């Protein structure tokens, strides 16, 4: 549960939602202290996966929109 919360905070930081770069650095430092490199990699992979799925979905929606237009 903690790693999901951290992932949400990092995602919010990177997406520009009411978080500063300093907060991103602090969250990353806290993550390293609590979970080390494996925890960081877990969050990084989850974030990357989320971005890939979001972009794939967006491309599919755009393709369907072009076909139906």
Low-confidence stretches: none
* Rg, alpha carbons: 15 Å
Beta content comes to: under 5%
Mean pLDDT: 77
Oligomer: single chain
Q: Ends: how far apart? A: 43 Å
> What percentage of residues falls in helices of 4 or more residues?
over 70%
Number of helices: 2
Q: Name the structural class.
A: mainly alpha
**What is the 3D shape?**
elongated
Order of helices and strands: HH
Q: How many distinct beta strands?
A: 0
Number of discrete domains: 1
* Major sheet size, sense and barrel closure: none
Protein described:
With 69 residues, this protein is an all-alpha fold. It has one domain (2-68). Helix content is 90%, strand content 0%. It has two helices and no strands. The protein has helices at residues 2-15, 21-68. Helix 1 (2-15) crosses helix 2. The longest helix has 48 residues, at 21-68. It is elongated. It starts with a helix and ends with a helix. The model has no long low-confidence stretch (mean pLDDT 77).
Question: Would you summarize the structure shown here?
Answer:
The chain is an all-alpha fold.
């Amino acid at each position: 549960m903690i790693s999901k919360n951290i992932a949400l905070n990092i995602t919010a930081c990177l997406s520009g939602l009411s978080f500063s770069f300093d907060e991103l650095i602090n969250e990353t430092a806290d993550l390293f202290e609590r979970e080390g490199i494996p925890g960081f990699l877990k969050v990084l992979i989850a974030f990357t996966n989320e971005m890939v799925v979001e972009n794939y979905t967006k491309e599919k929606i755009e393709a369907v929109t072009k076909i139906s237009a």
